[in-house]
Amino acid sequence: MDEATKPAQPAIRLTWLDSMKGISILWIAFFHFYTTYTNHRYPDPLGPAYFPKFLEQCTPSASTLWCVSHGFWVAVWSVGFHAVAVFLVLSGFGLTYSLAKTGVPEDGWLGWYRGRLLRLFPMYWVAHFVYLVSPFVARPEPIDYRFFLSLLGDRVYPVYSLFYYINPAWWYFGLLIQLYLIFPLLFRMLQKLGPVWFLVVCGVATVVIRYLLLFTISAHGYYVQGAFGGSRLWEFALGMVLGLLYRRSASDADDRLFSFPAITGGAVLYVLGLYSYANSVTYIFNDALIGTGLFVILAHVARWCDLLPRFGGTLAYVGAFSYGLYLLHQPYVIYFGERMREMPELLFSVLAWGIIALITIAAIPLERYVNQLTNWVLDRKKESRQPPAVSYQPNLEIKS
To answer: Which of 396 and 30 is assigned the larger pLDDT?
Structure first.
C-alpha cells in the first residue's frame, strides 16, 4: 500500500494552523510597515554585532535594559519576512492533508489544477484592479506591459524588472504557481518513498539547487529567494510530510510537534538560520533552517494563543482569510508608512496597527465575496452543462 494512502483518521479542524496564518500575515504586514519607519536608521539585525552597534546609538540617558529591549523590538519586527517560509510549509501541509486520505483527487489531477487555480487567481486579479483604482497606495513604478504579465501569474520573467513589480509581496504568487505545478509529482514521490526518504531527497535537491544558483550559475538573488521554485523546495516538502503525518494520526503528530524537545529544536534551528546569513556557503541552508525552526516556534505560539479563546479565535479568523490581506496590504502600508516615518516610534506603531486593522477589516469580506462569486459562477456553468431532465410517468403498477 502506498505510504500516502494508508488508513487515516477522519479530517479534523486544526485551529492552530489558522492561528499560525494569522500571526504570520500580521507579522509580515507590520514588517512592511515598520521598515518604512526604520529606513536604515538602525543597524541591520541580521548583520554582525547587531546589539553592540545598537547600544552605541542609544542616548546616554537611556538605560542598558531599555536599549536592549528596544533593540530586541526592532529585531523582531525587522525579520517579519521570515514568516513567508511558514506559509510555504503551511501550503504543503494543506494540499497534502486534503489528499492523503484517498491518495488521488476526486476529479483527477486536471480537476485538482483547476480547483487550485480558481482558488488563487480570482482574488489575485481583484487585487490588481484594486491597485489600479485605489487612492492611498504607493506607486513606485509605471503601469506597463509588466502589469499584464503579472495578471497572467508571471512574476518571474523578466525577473529583474517583474519580481518586485508594483506590489513586491506578489513575488510569492509566482513561487506558489511553480510549486503547485510540480505538486502531483511530489505527492507521488511521497507515496512511493515515504516521509523520511522523501525529505532526504527534497533536502538534497534543495541544497544542490541553491549551490548551483549561488556558485555555479551566479544567478540573481531573486532566483534563490523564490523566482526558481526548487530553491524553496524544502519548506514545501516539510509541510507535505507534516500534512501526511497529521492525516494518519493527528494525536501522535500533536504529541511530537508540541513537545519540549520540538520547541527546543525549533529554536536552535531558527538561531542557526539567523547565523546562516554570515556568508554565501551557509546561506545555502538559510531558508530551510528559518522555515523549519520558525514553523515549530509559531505552532507553539499559536497553540498558546488558542488558550485565550477570543484572541485565538480572532487570529484564526484573520488566518483563514490571510490570502486577501497578503495580496492587498503592502501598497497601502508603504504609502502611509512613508508619510508617518517622522513620528515618534510609539505613535507610529500604534497608528500602524490601527491601519493594518482597517485593511484587514476591508480585505476579509472582499475575499469572502470574491470566493462566493467564483463559486456561484462555477455552479451556474455546471448547471448549464447538465442535460435537461426527461419527463416521464412512473409505472405505479405493482405486480405480484
So the answer is: 30
